[in-house]
Amino acid sequence: MARLPRSHPGIPYELDRYLTPAEKIVFRTRLHPIRIVRPWLLFVVVLLLAGVLGSGLPRNNGGVRGASFFVVVGFLAWAIWRTFEWYREWFVGTDRRLMLTLGIVTRKIAMIPLGKVTDMRYDRPPLGQILGYGSFVLESAGQEQAFREVRYVPHPDILYRRISEELFTPDARRGSDRPQPVARAIPVNEPGDPWWKRT
After folding, report:
1. Are 5 and 16 in contact (CB under 8 A)?
2. What distance in Å separates the CA atoms of residue 50 and residue 61, rounded to the nearest whole number?
3. Which site in 16, 47, 60, 86 is 20 to 30 Å from 24, CA atoms measured?
């Protein structure tokens, strides 16, 4: 399969392939690692429970030990899978759109043009204020969106400001950069001779 030419050197190819050469990248970030804490916590809890259960069983009870081993391996595989999923998830903002990449087997690219965003809500729960993450809720006038909410956004204060600058500053900048019309003098037709000499 032919590879697309690189238009944004220095960023992962899996992102570059979805961007146009004319786009300017404002930010790109993975989601906050809090997203993968839950599967790893569950794995640790299951591992501890399997250890306690195994220590209380007689040595000749191999069936329960074997079952608990496969349960532990299953939770470990799930935690690794979720970590790889998180590693391939990107939240990207350009001067034209916001984009969220998801999935491993089936790759999903959700996108909303900046011009369609009519409102954006910024939420930071108490735990997010402590650990440094937040959520953005995007609104679009009367249209079904490819994605509406981006959760677990790291450095949310910085990214909120950057998105706001792209949403509101460009129009003002374009207005000020637009060449202003030059005022022209109103033509005045003055007679060559005074009125008493005109025939």
Report:
1. no
2. 14
3. 86
